[in-house]
Specification:
By secondary structure, the chain is α/β, with parallel strands linked by helices. It has two domains: 222 residues, Rossmann fold; 130 residues. The strands form four sheets. It has a five-stranded parallel sheet. Strands 1-2 form a two-stranded antiparallel sheet. β8 and β9 form a beta hairpin. α13 crosses α14, α15 runs antiparallel to α16 and α16 packs across α18. The longest helix is centred in the middle third of the chain and has 19 residues. It is globular.
Length: 363
């Protein structure tokens, strides 16, 4: 790996896991859809992990139901676009990036959806200096990532589709139906090359969501990504991602002990579900989602605290600030929820005294 690539803060999936993708390509003899780098079986193995016939181990990128991943991959092998739907923090973006990396070797054909996303960001724009000097021409046209993916037969990604205004969302309808992007100004069009498809992600939990029109929904196959079913599954997701992020950021701290990860995950699951794990105590729920992604953020922040302001070992006081920031989004309502949870649950749990004291001093 080149020094310049090592210095990148966050490598693309196809760069970070290039060795695994190459190993899969070597042993992959199964049928591949047009322009796919790997077969659907190999894509699933890359995403879910496994051991190859030659003993090479593929690390899991997504921990969850295999059938959901297989359904997503099968959709992309057809002419239907894929919509990954779920509450924030269910690894929609993470999964979409790795699917694109495995299928076409390039996850960078990305459009980030926001309230300010315009139709030009989805279709194409213009180099106005050339447009004024030369008039409308292909040379003056600035293709969007979606247009480039169509022309090259690659996978395009649209993140947070429901953040995009509804009238802009509907500019996708012709593209997904006809596999063609008209350019009326030039009396021309761009036709999609085999291998092109679209992965969109969306959630309906946050504020500022624009519902998809019925016409656009019909152009997608929807796969709903759930929150982790069990505590053990969520702990494993958090442990794996924290270790990966810690290596990427070169944090001089140890990955937290399993006990610390379990405590954070337990707190998040109990507040999310409104009841303690033993089912004995009902709890108020905070306004925040408390997703797996936020648990990862809390522990990564704790590693940074321990590395730079401690002895490198993550302890309760390193995590307390991150917990407070993740849970108390509304300074009035959420503070009451968190304080009640500390007094009725954390304070009474054996071996949680250190966490109680560390969190209580911040309130």
């Amino acid at each position: 790996m080149s020094e310049s690539l090592r210095a990148v803060l966050r490598q693309h999936a196809e760069q970070q896991f290039a060795e695994e993708l190459a190993a899969l390509a070597e042993v992959d003899t199964r049928p591949r859809p047009p322009n796919w780098r790997l077969s659907p079986w190999a894509v699933a193995t890359y995403v879910l992990g496994g051991e190859l016939p030659n003993g090479f181990k593929i690390t899991p990128k997504y921990i969850g139901q295999r059938r959901l991943v297989e359904a997503a991959i099968a959709t992309l092998a057809t002419d239907r676009a894929l919509l990954l739907l779920g509450v924030p923090g269910t690894a929609k973006t993470w999964l979409s990036e790795h699917l694109a990396a495995a299928i076409c070797g390039d996850s960078t054909f990305l459009i980030q959806g926001t309230a300010g996303t315009s139709e030009e960001a989805i279709r194409y724009g213009w180099n106005y200096a050339r447009l004024l000097a030369e008039g409308p021409s292909m040379a003056a046209l600035v293709p969007s990532p979606l247009m480039r993916a169509m022309a090259e037969g690659k996978i395009a990604r649209v993140e947070e589709l429901t953040r995009i205004p509804s009238d802009v969302q509907d500019s996708l309808i012709t593209i997904l139906s006809e596999k063609t992007l008209p350019i009326p100004e030039l009396n021309a069009e761009v036709q999609a090359i085999k291998g092109f498809n679209l992965i969109a992600t969306a959630n309906d939990r946050d504020r500022g969501v624009n519902d998809l029109s019925a016409a656009l929904k019909r152009r997608f196959n929807t796969v709903v990504l759930p929150l982790p079913e069990t505590e053990a599954e969520e702990v494993e997701i958090v442990r794996t991602r924290v270790a990966s992020i810690g290596r990427a950021l070169e944090l001089p701290a140890e990955v937290p002990a399993l006990l610390e990860i379990q405590r954070i995950v337990t707190i998040f699951r109990e507040l999310r579900n409104g009841i303690t794990a033993d089912g004995k105590t009902k709890l108020k729920t905070p306004s925040s989602t408390l997703s797996t992604a936020e648990a990862i953020s809390v522990i990564t922040g704790g590693m940074a605290m321990a590395a730079h302001f401690g002895d490198g070992v993550v302890r309760a006081h390193d995590l307390a600030g991150g917990l407070l920031g993740a849970i108390v989004k509304d300074p009035v309502q959420d503070r009451v929820v968190w304080l009640e949870y500390l007094e009725t649950v954390v304070k009474t749990r054996e071996a949680w005294d250190d966490l109680y004291r560390a969190c209580r001093t911040l309130l």
